Amino acid sequence: MGLSVSLSNALSGMHTTQKGLEVLSRNVANAGTPGYHRQSVNIAEEMGNGSSAYARLASVDRAFTESLQRLYNQELSNIGNANVKADFLSRIETQLGKPGDDTSLNSLYQNFENAMQAMVTSPDDYTARSEVVSSAQLLASKLNSLTASVQGLRQEAENQISTHVTELNRSLQSLAKINNSLSDQTGDATSRAALLDERDRLVASISELIDTNVVYRPDDTVAIMTSTGLGLLDNGATVFEFQGVGGINAGSLSNIDDTKNGVGNLYATTPSGLRLDLVEQGIIQSGRLGGLLDLRDDLLVEMQGQLDEIASGLAQSLSTVTTEGTAIAGPPDGFSLDLANVQKGNDFTVSYTVNGTAQTVRVVRVDDPSKLPMDTTGPNGERVLGLDFSGGIGAVATALDAALGPAINVSSPGGTTLEIVDDGLGNTSDITGLSSRTTATGNQNGTLAISLFTDANNAGFTNSLDGDTQKLGFAGRININTAIVNDNSLLVKYDSGTSLGDPARAQHLLDGLQKSTFTATNATAADRGNFRLAGGVQNMISQMMNYQGNSITSANSNENAAALALEAVTIRTDAEYGVNVDEEMARLLELQNSYAASARIVSVVQELIDNLMNI
């Protein structure tokens, strides 16, 4: 091998070593940089003239495993979803309190019931009556504050969705630019490696916000879609659009009907121009956006519904007046009932048998034509009919007669009286009961029931179904009857002549509180057990706190599981992609020795050439 070949090989070795040192210095400098992938030089052996061989830098390789990167992206979506849910629900836990805490809902209710019991014992004691009012105020205030917290979190979720949509659009646009740059194969290896690092950082940021399925192409560009198949990035980037609604309250609910929708809409427009409603079509399944949508539209709405059921039960247990029908001796046999006091949302129930089959129908006053016709099955299995009372009881009788069939005869003899009788001598039907449930309207009209808990502007709670329904958001509006606040003797004096020592009203109110039972209108979602509050007010409070406590515990467990899964994947990515400084220092010594050896060859060749020139 001639001197020129030796010199050429040595210079090639020095050049290759120099490139290795550059890569090593980048690795060490970025050892703590998030998203940086370790680089290494790939050296190839080349044959020169004759039988000589020399080293050549073939490429600069970047550590990357597609399957591992896919798993990492998936775990980022999971942790983003779990984090936001655990964060929001843990704040609700703080407001709700733990069972037995002095300020928890169940403790405040128990204080109220205890005060009611003390008033029954000493109805003429001003302090005992005052304690009932103050404990009722604390209970109502707790329901108000819990509603404010729930709706505040829903508003925060709405705001964060808007912020994340902006971030998502920015990341997708940046990633589209990275794709364009990567499609150009003429760039140097160092710049390309930096682009790939930035590509993976952007994909990770997108995955944290929304569930992703990433396709890594041979030219290093990526295509992204959601797990439901919506393309996020391919030939161009999908553009997300969030149309907020401003303030959110308990009545602001998600609805596919835009005229009824009360929350912000989230749309996506694909590069081809297709515009999709992401919420209506259930496209987003995970990531922070998926978690925020679940919180805003389901989890927090579900909790508000349970608070409203408790507030509704609390008001109705004290204000409901039950009136039994008067028997009609026949044949035909049946009952008559005066419906003069039936307000919107109040009802009457008729029980009967036809051919030996027992049936129960509950008729609710619904004057809102948009809610009619109403013929459903109630939570307790009874048939529920909604009828318009605004046209008089005669119209109610006609409608009910048609609904119950020929074996039952319904009529109105005049005024506000309704009569329901069987088929007489036909002997195929029997009327077994007729009663109404109305809301007390006065404080001293001889009725033991009284509206201690009222709606806004001191309105009685009748559970009206007209409009948005009175129950919706009632926990945020529930208040104390101002007349009772000003004169707590009304808790005892059910008419002007009642003695302060008469326990009749106090006992009636306590009985209503302890014995009234309710069944929530709506159950939770199927994936959360189809759970429905049922029982007395105290039972419903306990059920709600247990259910929400379990939901919070589940959210925290999911967050911990997602964090552990991400940690395990991160350990693998660190081992696969990360920079081990000790290994790099060892490599530095190897490169230094290699460079010194090549430099020595150059020096020796130089000496030989000088000697030859001097001959």
List the helices and strands and how they pair.
Elements: H1 3-29, E1 39-47, E2 53-62, H2 66-96, H3 105-121, H4 126-182, H5 189-209, E3 213-216, E4 222-225, E5 231-233, E6 239-243, E7 265-269, E8 275-277, H6 287-319, E9 320-324, E10 326-328, E11 334-338, E12 347-354, E13 357-365, E14 374-377, E15 383-387, H7 393-404, E16 409-414, E17 417-421, E18 429-439, E19 453-454, H8 474-477, E20 479-480, H9 482-486, H10 504-515, E21 518-519, E22 534-535, H11 537-577, H12 581-614
Parallel strand pairs: 13-15
Antiparallel strand pairs: 1-2, 3-4, 4-5, 6-7, 7-8, 9-18, 10-11, 11-17, 12-13, 12-18, 14-15, 16-17, 19-20, 21-22
Enumerate how many helices there are, as a single number: 12
Q: Over all CA atoms, what is the radius of gyration?
A: 38 Å
Strand order of the largest sheet: 9-18-12-13-15-14
Q: Strand content of the residues, in percent?
A: 15-25%
- Mean pLDDT rating: 91
- Chain oligomer state: single chain
Strand count: 22
Distance between the termini: 21 Å
Helix content: 40-55%
Q: Structural class given helices, strands, pairing?
A: alpha+beta
User: Could you say which overall geometry the principal axes of the C-alpha atoms support?
Assistant: elongated
